[in-house]
Amino acid sequence: MAELEVEHLRLSFGGLTVLDGISFTVEPAELFVLIGPNGAGKTSVFNCISGIYPGKGRILFKGRDITRWSPRARAKLGIARTFQHSELFPHMNVLDNIMVGRHARIDTRPWAEALSTPGVRRAEIAHRAAIERIIEFVELEGVRYADAGSLPFGTQKIVGLARALALEPSLLLLDEPSAGLSRDERDDLARFILRIKHELKLPMIWIEHDMQMVADLADRIHVLDYGRTLASGDPQSVLSNEAVINAYLGKA
Amino acid sequence: MLRKLAAAILAATALSAPAAAQDAYTIGLTGALTGAPASTYAPAVQALRIYVERVNAAGGINGRKINLILQDDSAEPGKAAANAKKLITQDGVILMLNASLSSTYAPMLAEAKRAGVPVLFASSVCPKDVYPPADPLQFCTTAFAANYDSRAVLDFIKATAKEPVKIGFSAMAIPISRGEIDFAEELSKTMGMTPVDKEVIPPPTPDYTPFATKIKDAGANWAYSWAPWVTQVRTLEALRRLDWKGDYIAWSHIEAEGELARLKDDRFYVIGANALFQDGLPIHKEIADAAKAANVQYPVQQMAEGWIAGMVIEAALKATGWPATSEKLAAAMSNLKVDTKGLRGGPIEWTKNNHFRTRQYYRVYKWDAAKISIVRIKDWTAFDVK
Amino acid sequence: MQLAVNIAVLASIYALIACGYVLIYRVSRVLNLAHGELMMLAAYLLLTTASSFAGHPLFAISAAIGLSILVGAMVYLFLMRKMTGEMALAAVLATVALGVLLRGITVIVWSAQQQYPATALGLVNPSIALPGGARISLCGALLVACTAVAYGSLLAFLRFGRWGVRMRAAGQSPLLAAQRGINLHAIYAIAWSLSTFTGAMAGMLIALDSGLGQTMTIIGLKAFPAALVGGLDSLAGALAGSLIVAAAEVLLIHYVDPLLSEVVPFLVLIAMLVVRPWGLFGTREELDRV
Amino acid sequence: MSEPMLSVDKLEVVYQRAITALQGISLGVAPGQIVGVLGTNGAGKSTLLRAISGFHGVDDARVTEGTIRFEGRRIENGEPHRNTRAGIALVPERDKVFPNLTVAENLSVPVASSGSRADMSRRQALVFHHFPRLGDLRARTAGLLSGGERQMLAIAGALMCGPKLLLVDELSLGLAPVIVSDIMQKLVQIRRELSLTMIVVEQSAAVALAVVDYGYVLENGRVVLDGDATRLRDHPDIREFYLGQSSAGGRRSYRTVKQYRRNRRWYG
Amino acid sequence: MSRLPRASGHFRTSYAQDFRLIQTPLERRWLAALLVALLTFPFIASPFLTDLASQALLAMVGAMALMLLTGFAGQVSLGHAGLLAAGAFTAGILFRETGAPFWMTLPAAALVGAFLGVVFGLPSLRLRGLYLAVSTLALHFLVAYVGGEYESKRGFSTGIVIDPPVIAGKAVTDPRAWYFILLTAAVLTLLVCLNLLRSRSGRAWAAIRANETVAEALGIGVAANKLLAFVISSMLTSLAGALFAYYRGFVSVEAFSLFLSIQYVAMIIIGGMGSVLGAILGAVFVTLFPYLIEAVMQLLPGAGAYAGVMFAVNYAAFGVVMILFLVLEPQGLVGIWRRVQTYFLLWPFKHKPVAGARR
Asked: I want to staple A9 with a disulfide (CB 3.0 to 4.6 A). Which of A22, A180, C196, E30 is the partner?
């Protein structure tokens, strides 16, 4: 059974149609890559899957129809994402940023928190330990207590990835994680993505502009253009598709 | 946190500097000296201040000076409470004065009761507790008196009106004014008048015409307002602009004398307990000279209220003797008779049971277009206060 | 008929004050809570010029207006300019602090006493009979006229005037406006001056009509819901909002309970915020995008 | 090379008094040149353009070291409107038009250094000549324009400032390649007619390298590579990273990245 | 929120240490000294100074509550005075109508506060920033209107008088006793705030404040957490209002004017946004400042000569100082405090190395 099924997803703002009937499925532990020119609607697909935009159509996750679910409920179900510009909370340190990502997995009550009951203390410490494993996983030990806003751009993107992982997700949405990274940082990123795929066995949807990374890593590619599907399939066939080359890669 | 302590220490050193002088009668006042209602209270407080300065310049009382400490509360009760606390604990006053809105009474009295310090309301509305049976610690010199005023007003209307009275009322939306107008409305019915309309007007009102329209449309031929001056006079002005021709009577606040001359309205009566400066009594000249010498900010016509408070305080302290304590002062005040030298219709007399005055006197004035001056319509009429 | 006149006068008062809030908010996204105090200051300035130019009321009025325009520009240059880039709340608080300062200054200079600039100018304020048996005071009529003229010329200026268009541009996107060669400081200073100018007109006319005291500031605050009901960034909205609030107020006074007039503007405001949070004519803030 | 019109020397820009966005950037632009600035997202390209056009109060950014000279005058930390009036006009990446104003109003906003009415109408005629589409849409509200029309309006707005130096930020962003190359050609044409100088910032190296005379590549706030267009086009790294072409087959696959932590992380 | 380990030579060896409020022995010693100072203060200071300190402590409770809402959860409120009034009126009305004792009126006030928190918070689901501030302002006027109507309908024209609370069979009137009651209230509020801020809710608020959309996508219930912030803040504020009523022995609408709301906003801004310490410093500053000016002006030569305008000058000076703070020190008192601290920590160096410096 497919992990995620998106059927006839449509989205429009005012008169502007952003998504015009997109359909695709993501299989377990699959690295599913979404490409397309700027403004093609890739991030809008993410916003629909994570529930920020009210898209029309159907979204099924592990067989359940989540189209009408709130973003919060979807997060609880395990849909985690990163953001194009990492969107960290700049005045919080790395640790707290990642802890925020774990919000949906913590279930302490505000009244108990106000009194800092032993239960709350235990929970906080346990989650802190869990966060530390993620910090190790993505090698952020050195910047744990640094304010997120003061970090270099590349590190911020990795913190964003760690924040998404903190949810212990069952589906990971990566929005242009490599944008703005240097070649070295891209190496790191590729390493982390492969580890997530092999060690955590997570399905991922990945929006990417770096065709080289896409060609090397993707299991399947889905091409969007002006809110429509242009092509879909394995990397080789998609990247050699004439229509894709014309619309997206251009005559460079 | 450390900073907090540092600030506290700084405050301590700064505030302990002006310690209370031990060889003077220390009295303190909290009043609305800034803020929206300041125009009613600030002139009275200024008059009181010059009065005290005059007494001190003349050698004080029983050989001791009066140390009058002023505190501003901007008519905010919280501030008044803090002021009262400061006056009692820091300055050690033996008498507290209030010249502010009625909302400041409760917090101030709470502090005064705890310390056993008497409170004198000067220029602020007299609370119920000064009427018989009086609270042992509360006193009042302010001219106006709830209920008695309306009685006097309605008596005057009844005596003056030539045709059946259809009366409209105007109050400000503050409890004291609303209460008085409600009382007057009920009373008017028992006196054979027809109350046709009652407007309770919120204080921040840019235009009074909508309210005046209702009074006029109700067909009133008389209107009565007992409220802060602004409400009284602006209701009248709005009525006149609507071409209303009826008679209008209002309480004679400290602003009245200047305003009668400004409005020049033939059918606008003011009723009050203070003699206007128009009467030209010797005491009026005395006040005018003192005000001129002190270079005051406010017109001399607004000084009478504070002056009377000064006269009463002087008499009370004289009777207390030296050394003075709050208990001795309260005792002296409970048995006091002060000659107002014509500023009021008679003396201010306090007994154990009555801390208002035993008799309240009223005079009615209005502008006379023919004479181009203010004229007295009705001389002192007295009401016994029970 | 009298009711209609009452509504018109009250709406004019609110509208003339409200457009000051709108002008500043629209251009610089700052809420000026010192508007009432600036109004009051202008009226007090009139009191002073009235005594300096005794016998020349027009001269005194124009001098006072000139002074208040200057005050508006100075408020921007010496205070609000320093607040650019700060939190919106801090900027609002700065205007509150300015209000406190101005209130203190007016008491120091002019005392807390109720004053009558009309008397000082030697002006009378007769009442004019209108058809239908209604009446209006001269100042009331002037208020309506001034509001009409002020709104007419402001709307025309913003729509067709070269600098009006630039002001709108600066309000929409200050950065781009600056990159297009517009001196934002000049624009903001103009906005403050204009706002103080309209506020000054309102303050002076109200003071001429009914006297001048510290309560003027509260009137300034009362017009604020009117501006919000219409949408803080729309001049036409301010006019409509003022009409709605004034009509609600006058009709409630007349037919229901005068006491309600105090809370009516805020009730209308809350109703509005629930239905259309950005106001009648206001523009909806853009959706957040990730 | 002739005397540079604009020279940036060891520029350093700090955001919010804490975050360094540019470090020691130096570049020069000769009159009439089109200079390209390439780099990935967050490399500091837009910051560089903004530093040249001037920071605004709310940016909370400052040039902390280095200089920017325009026609010999220092303009670092100058206010945007002054720099614009000195002859530098920017076509920003986002918020490039006033959405609630009409096209005509948008064009009447700019305050030019030589702002006589005749100059303005001459410029307006020029703009409508090059972008006839804008003439047709005169009364349309800018917020309702399509992406391409909006970009044209943004360029037109900048031209109305009467610039000597035109800065264009991410022209290709969100536009179809056909439209991009169209507008690019127009820009080249306008440059020729008005003898403008230009700096073009692009993420898409393909777009930029087609028109520029000289290019700089930025990475993490530093210039890592510069040279004329041919040199850049032929540079293996550019081919690999920005043009997405594999050079001579010797490319390392991401799939084969070493699965251990790179130890150079331990040296600062 | 977890903090950077500060003192050198002190390393964290367990996750629990990340969560601790007091991190180093030095901090513990300072805290102990402060506590001793606070406990002995009323026995050294005059009753008047004790009253001032009590006022400041009461203001701290309200300021911390507002800081929680505005400084941390990012929800701007100008209706703080309305909530204080609600608490005070709950205590006053219950006392007047039913003679309910202290220990019943306080929880009632908290409940009313919680309810009003939801009411005041509902607009925040649709409105942001200044518009939200204005909606809370409007609600403030409604609360004041209801309170005022109660006062006049029941004939309490000069406010509702409340007897001092009775604890252990004794009426509490002594300034020292009140000082300790209010100190306890302030310390408890401080602990509640710190506890919330270092837990899940506190992080959620910080996230919402920084970016609502991102917070929502991360699975944070934005609406629920906003309302939670309003409810907790309003409860604390209401309690402060009830304490005010008992402390001053009265309740009246006039005591809860718009200006009071503004004073509280001034406290958190002058103190320094987004810092509990800032709320405390701001509360102390705003409470004591008028007295300081007055004291300074009394010291000036010839103070008596301009007694007539002195209060207006005092009033204006408050405006001037607020302006100076806003213009010159946007970080507030806490900014100054941190600078001083860093200066001593780093001496003889001038700048802190940037955390997580670029590779």
From this structure: A22
